[in-house]
Amino acid sequence: MKKKPKPLLQSGWILEGFPENQEQAWMLQSSGIFPRHVVMLYAPDTVLIERSGGKRLDPVTQEVFHTTFDWPSDPLVQQRLVKPEDLSEQEVSKKLLEYHRNFPEIFHIYQKVLKSINADQPSVDVLSQVLAFVQSRHRSAAPFTPRVLFFGPPGSGKSLQAALIAQKYDVVNICCGQLLKEAVADNTKLGELVKPYIDSGCPVPDNLVLRLLTERLSALDCLTNGWVLSGFPRDVGQGEQLQKAQINPNRVFFFNLPQESIMERLSQRRTDPVTGERYHTTFRPAPTPEIQARLRQNPKDEEENIKKRLDIYYSNVKALEDFYEEAFYVNADQDPYVIFEFIESCIIKPLPCKNVF
Fold first, then answer.
1. Name one Pfam family in it (predicted).
2. What's 118's domain CATH number?
3. Are residues 106 and 194 in the same domain?
4. 169 and 49 assigned to the same domain
5. What was the pLDDT predicted at 139?
6. What does the alpha-carbon distance between residue 253 and residue 329 come to, in Å, rounded to a whole number?
7. In terms of domains, do 74 and 208 share one?
8. What pTM did the predictor assign?
9. Is residue 5 in a domain?
10. CB neighbourhood size of 87 (10 A)
């Protein structure tokens, strides 16, 4: 999915009729799209079927009217209205059956931000309840300001879990690599110093990374809401520099995943150069042979390059585990929401000595 344009980020948005199932909901979250409020309108099936029977479509403007609730005043419009072909009682019943089958999975994903509202009442009352809900602010269940640090090999799901934590607790999601790129794109003073290293593909010096992180983590939103950080530190030396800068996480997680699972996740990723859409040869194959033929692989996802990245990670991880001795250990080779529930439980409960999951 394409990056959200700034007007939507500034003004907000309303999405209707999507996602329709669990897979689509996960796709939204993987793309970094997290609604703060989800409204589920419900009514008895008999009422919904009856309402559907009264819908009429203007074939000229594609505007939808209703014989009881929203009849047009213009006689010309009245004369050209037609009944949509897909709104027979049989078709509506099939759609309702599909909806009832998929809704429990969607409810599970969005249950912390979802409110059910009875739609079998005057529309003005429905609107009033919806407005009251979307204007409310969710209270975090976290008993403290979370400062969370994620470690894990490439492909272990750190980004998804960081996004889920950020959504649930309204903390700031900081990926070190992305932070560096944003500094360059924004033409900040630090960004100008970082740019030559990004352009050449060379590692950015620790002192520049630390200055950028210290500046970001000292911002009001991080101090007030907390943060979740991934991509730094990569070794104990960087961890010690974080300590000296008084950047101390209160929860640390190490993601563990078999190397064969990592290779399967990363080496089979493909991108459509025309649309920018991402696919996976096993988990999300291209829908047509035409799209399949034009897919390209990012060089970093070639097996040789994946192995190099893994070698760098594994050469440092043992020392990092010793450095952060009170860390939690996560089996990342399972359902993302099982992983999230474990991480969440570690965040909201008092810190134990050591835990393995």
1. ADK
2. 3.40.50.300
3. no
4. no
5. 54
6. 6
7. no
8. 0.59
9. no
10. 17
Q: Across the beta sheet with 251-256, what order do the strands follow?
A: 172-175, 227-230, 147-151, 251-256, 328-331, 355-356
Count of beta carbons in the 10 Å neighbourhood of residue 265: 21
Note whether 44 and 181 are same-domain residues. no
Q: Average pLDDT for consecutive 10-residue bins of the chain (357 residues)?
A: 51 87 78 79 89 89 88 92 84 89 85 87 89 74 76 93 90 92 89 90 89 87 89 94 88 94 92 91 91 92 92 95 92 91 83 47
Q: Is 56 helix (H, G, I), strand (E, B) or coil?
A: strand
Provide the phi-psi class of 226: left if phi over 0, else alpha when psi is between -120 and 50, else beta. Answer: left
Q: Would you say residue 4 lies in a domain?
A: no
Residue 103 to residue 296: CA distance in whole angstroms: 35
Q: What angle do CA 27, 29, 31 make, to 5 degrees?
A: 70
Number of domains observed in the structure of the chain: 2
SS3 317: helix
Structure tokens at 101: 């089958």
Q: Which amino acid is at 198?
A: I
d(CA 141, CA 168): 9
Backbone angles phi, psi at 273, to 5 degrees: -65, -15
Q: What's the pLDDT score for residue 36?
A: 81
Give the pLDDT of residue 353. 42
Give the phi and the psi of residue 118 in degrees, each rounded to 5. Answer: -70, 120
Is the domain of 259 the same as that of 342?
A: yes
**87, 108, 134: which is the final residue of a domain?**
134
CA end-to-end span of the chain, whole Å?
A: 32
The pLDDT, as a whole number, for residue 317 is: 95
Look at residue 128 and give its three-state secondary structure.
helix
Instruction: Specify whether the CB–CB gap between 249 and 162 falls below 8 A.
Output: no
d(C-alpha 286, C-alpha 293), whole Å: 9
Q: Is residue 7 part of a domain?
A: no
- Phi first, then psi: give them for residue 247, nearest 5 degrees: -100, 100
Q: Give the alpha-carbon dihedral of 253, 349, 39, 130, to 10 degrees.
A: -130
Instruction: State how beta strands 147-151 and 227-230 pair.
Output: parallel
Look up the domain containing 17 and give its range: 12-134
